[in-house]
Amino acid sequence: MAPPRIAVCAADTEYAVEAATRLRALHPTVAPEVADVIVALGGDGFMLQTLHRYIDRNVPVFGMNRGSVGFLLNDFRETALIDRIAAATRVTLNPLRMEATTIAGQRTSAIAINEVALFRQQRQTAKIRIEIDGVVRLEELACDGILVATPAGTTAYNLSAHGPIIPLGAGLLALTPISAFRPRRWRGAMLQRTARVGFEVLEPEKRPVSATADNMEVRDVVHVEVREATDIAFTLLFDPDQNLEERILKEQFAP
To answer: Residue 243: which residues within 8 A CB-CB, separation 6 or more?
Structure first.
């Protein structure tokens, strides 16, 4: 069997660009538009950018860390790349789909691999009503913001906001408030992956709110709906001893 055609993409940092140059000198590469596997060199942010950029290609991505944390990436090594790809563990991720409506009536749809988050835009606390599958579950949350995270995204901003870490196969989403003021003791919820989450911004002119889907931002929103995008699936490749399930498990026991 012929080896897979690989494309090498790098973040625009010296560290990543140099690594890409060395890889291309050692391995034959093709353009991402015709590759069987995309090799992404950078940090977690660049990995997310790569997945978004080639969302229509539906090919697996093997990331190698040339950034800082590298939670979604493998260790960088120049040698045995084809063998590593052949032996890699596949992880399939379904992202979230955000549908946001602004004060002006503009509607925007966006995809989030990690989380959809709402944030207050100015000094005043945001006030947000929360619906789950059309039923109001929280009449008014006064907060700096709130987010919905995929299992893979629960180790990112969600964890910093003191949300739960969810294993990939749990079939759940995390709903986590950001600096909740009222009700002060509410710590969020875990929802079925099929849940349709609705956010209604109360007093949007006085207390403006923005919504972000990964790195896509919509300002001055009045209503945001979030659900799992079951029609989209990303495939990430991991070295067997560094698979994503194991990393998520380790995060739950990190000091």
So the answer is: 89, 91
From the candidates 36, 44, 56, 75, give the one annotated as an active-site residue. 44
**Encoded tokens for 155:** 């180790």
Encode pLDDT of 134-190 as tens digits.
999 999 999 999 999 999 999 999 999 999 999 888 999 999 999 999 998 899 999
Runs of H (alpha helix) within the chain: 14-26, 44-53, 81-87, 157-160, 244-251
Query: What residue type is 112 in one-letter code?
Result: A
Structurally, the chain folds into a number of domains equal to: 2
Asked if residue 35 and residue 47 are part of one domain, the reply reads yes
- What sign does the CA torsion over 26, 30, 32, 34 have? negative
Q: Which residues does 162 contact at the CB level (< 8 Å), separation at least 6?
A: 176, 187
Same domain, 100 and 222: yes
Nearest partner of 226 among 127, 104, 133, judged by Cα = 133
CATH of the domain at 46: 3.40.50.10330
- 220 catalytic? Reply is no
Mark whether 123 and 223 lie in a shared domain: yes
